[in-house]
Structures are given as structure tokens and as C-alpha cells.
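Morning!

As promised:
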Amino acid sequence: MLLRTRSGVEPLPSEITPRPLYESRRAVLRAAAAGVAFWSTGAAYAAPAVRAAADAAPAKLQARPSSYSTMERQTPYKDVTGYNNFYEFGTDKEDPARFSGSLHVRPWTVSVEGLVARPRQFGIDELLGLAPLEERIYRMRCVEGWSMVIPWIGYPFAELMKRVEPTAGAKYVEYVTLADPAQMSGLRSGVLAWPYVEGLRIDEAAHPLTLLTLGLYGEVLPRQNGAPVRMVVPWKYGFKSGKSLVRIRFTDRQPVTSWNRAAPQEYGFYSNVNPEVSHPRWSQATERRIGEDGFLQRKRPTLKFNGYGEQVASLYAGMDLHKAF
Amino acid sequence: MPAWTCTRHSDRASRVSAYGRPAIRSDARGALATLIAARPRVPAIRPSARALAWIRAVLFVSALVPLARLFALGYADALGANPVEFVTRSTGTWTLVMLCATLSVTPLRRLLGWPWLLRLRRMLGLFAFFYATLHFTTWLWFDQWFDPASMLADIMKRPFVTVGFTAFVLLLPLAATSTQAMMRRLGRRWQELHRLVYAIALLGVLHYWWAKAGKNDVAEPFVYALVVAGLLAFRLVWTTAGAVRARRATPPSRARAPGRPGRRRP
């Protein structure tokens, strides 16, 4: 018989409020807050119809566990899907959840091109079945100084590389996000030069931690998180992990990436998580874990390579990471 | 005689205005009248002492609504995924709003001809200080957790923090000398000291601008920059127009030296 002892932090099953009950409580509180916050944009409360249509029964994904997963507490689903940077839908953190309902995620094709032996297009269903899906619970550190722990679902990007066979001349890979003004309201602003482009050195792309990602929390990716397919590069700042990808190009030249182009002194091509290299406008030494650190708990120290140094530090042997930031 | 030239307002109001902006020179008034001839006719509202007390009470409560909203949202667990960031931004925004409100008192009272608006200015200024203090405390406590080394690095190394911190420090003497007694004690120097508010407003906008610049998103800072620029430009135009007309109207021998105080009301 399996004996379980109470650790002191674990509540008794009888003490746990049933989910429907606490959700209804929260709905009441939120409605009260909405009444108080009458001068806030109102868009959040006007949009549920759009969101309901978009979110109707997100498809479940089966995935096997991975030894690369962290055991840290996972960031609540509502924060993972409600606090996003996805400028194609607006620059506020709540904008992607509000406005991404207009994104058509099916049909969807990703064109893989450039210095590869077999350039071709992949439909989203083909991508979903390309390799066994794994759940990878990764830390995600945003360059802005906050972090999450997210159970992603996908497989190593290297699996895709195997299918297209990059040539010997391919030194880098760049991946491009959809830029369709009809579906993405944020494109009207000139915040960045669209489309959003990010990239990796080929050995970074081939690293087993680099995840071609199709889902999170057991479901296909929500739109605000980069549906239907995105990159996740857990040892780099979040903006390196391009969302809603339509084109992947292998190249012999370092890609001109969006944030590097917009503010080269602030965002380098590598953008590895590094507490020793400050952003010009804030320190990167600490981070606020969303859902945990805030008014009650102070920020936590940021780990070099976001704690994945053991796996990836060798990629940068001999490099001055203060210069190649 | 338009209401804004009214000199026989209630005694207390006159006393306050004597310590506020310099009284308008009588020979400049003609020029200014031309300047604002196109303004829509505004009734010469002169609230009674009782009415004014009510106006101040309503303003006081309204100015606390943003803070009450933060508490309500906090209680409802509706401050979003990053509550500290939410509170930082909200208190920062309301500091700027209150600063703009404070700076708009003089233009409004001149354009509308409502001298009693001056009697709301101290409260607005103190609310700007109030929200700035909340903004600063959020940074000091919930961002830096009172870590002196980290705070010093933030202030020294990061221009947008340097600028914000400077603006806050400059607000301190203004808040400290905001009382009636300090006004009396400092006399003319009070007014000179309180001109710091122009620098504070500019630094505040710059702080916001730089905070947003790296994210390439300066739409909102731009709005505040425009408002502050407009409010300061009004003063420049008002003063220059007055000075030009005054020089033309006065024989050179009797012209006042520039910068000398204008006639003061008793």
C-alpha cells in the first residue's frame, strides 16, 4: 500500500475548493472589479464572443514526458495564456489574448527553404505527426525581467532539420512569423519592421533543447502563444522564440533579426539569458516569476543560460558573451 | 470688464493668488485680451466659499479613485499576471496626469477667467506628489526590496531611472513648502522654487518616454509630451505677448527692467 504523508503544504482533498465553485467565486469578484474599473478600455469585456468562437474545444495533444523537463511549479494556465508579448496583436500584455481570435490557424503551411537539400512546404497536420510529441516543461525568461514555467508540447527542431537536410553551407536558420494585416491588428503600428524575424546559429537550432512547439498544457497552442507552430529556445530570452511561423530559411549569413534591427545596443543576436549582462535600461540579475513573485515574495536571481548552462554552455566556448550578448 | 481681470475676488483667494503666479500687469492686459479674443464666452463663475469647499471635496475624492481602483482590483485578484508592474504603471500614469492637471490650472484660470481655480492647485500638486510617492515606493519595495546596491546601480546606470528619481527628489521640496505658512515665509522665493514643477514635468515625461523607447512604443508618452509642451507653451506665449505689448505701450524711460516683478496686489 502506498502511504502518503502530509508535507504540511499539501492540502487535504477535502479542503480543496471544487473547481466550478472557485471559478464562480472568481467570476463574481472579477465582475465587481470590472464595475470598478469602468474607465479601462472595456475591450477585454467586449471581446469574449470572439474568444469563445476561437477557443471552442482546443484539440488535446498526447505527449510523452521528457527528462529535459523542470520540476518547478508551473505557471497558471491563465497567466501563460493571458500575459503575452505578441506585438502582431498589440503591445499590451493582454492584447494577444484579446485580439488574436482573428488569426486563422488552419489551413497553415510552413515553407522550409534556403540551403537545404529538400526544400518543401509542411502542412500543420504533417508537422503535428512529424515526430513523437514530447512534453517539455521549460523555464521561459522574458528579456523584460519576468519568467514563467510552461509545459510546452513539441519535438526537437532537429527532427525537422533531418527531413530537409541542410547543406554544408547552412550556418544559420531564420524563422519568420506570419504578417497578415487582415488577421493581425497590431501590424498597423510601426513598432517593429514586419514580418517578425528571429534566428539561430545552426548548432543552436540543432541542439536537443530547441523545441519546435505545437502545444502547451496538453492542448494545441492557443493563438496568443503563437499558434499553430512556434520555436521555443529555453536558454535565450523569450523574444528569440518566434511565434506563428510561416517560413524557415537556412542560410550562410547571420539573419537580421527584428529586435536586433530595432535596437542593436539593447538586443543582441544571441540574447542568451545572462544575469551578468544588463539590459541598458534594467538589470538582468533578477527576475519576477509570474504567479509567484510580487507583493509577497521578492524577485529571484536569474540563472546564466536560464539554468540550462550544463546543456548549452559548450556552444559558446571561447566567446565573450559580454560582446556577443 | 471680463471676469478674469477681476481683482476684487474674495480676500482669501486674492491672498493665495498673490503668492501664486505674478499678477498680470495692467498694461499687458490689452495684449492678452486680443490674444484670447477668440475664446468662447465663459460665464464668470465665482463660487461661494461653501461651493468652493464642495468643489474641493469632490476633487479630493475623485483624485483618490485611481488608488481605490487599485485596491479593488487587488482584492478581486484582477491586477493581472504581474501585479507589481500593473501598480507601477498605474501610479506612474496618475502622477503624470496629476502633474498635467496642476500645470493646467494657470492656463485654465486665465482662459476661462476663473481665478478661484488657483485654490485647487495645491491639492492637485500634492496628489501628484502622492502618486509619485506610491510609484517610487513600489519600485523601492517591490522591485528592489530595499537593496541599496541594486537601487544605486539602477539610479546610476539607467538614464530612465536617473531621470525619474531626479524628478521625484525635486518634488520633495515642493511638497514640503506647500503649506500656507511656508508660502508666507518664503515670499517671492516660494514662487521661484515652485517653478521647479516645469522641470519635474519635463523629466517625468522623459522618464516615461525612455521607459517605453526600447520597446519602440512611444505613443502614450507622446501624448503626455504634447500636453506638457502645450501647457508650457501657453505660459511662454502669455508672458511674451504681455511683455511685447507692455514695451510698446510704455515710453522707454519708464520701461521696467526685464524680469522685475510686476505690480503685486495687496
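Chain A has one domain: 59-316.

Hope this helps with the figure draft.
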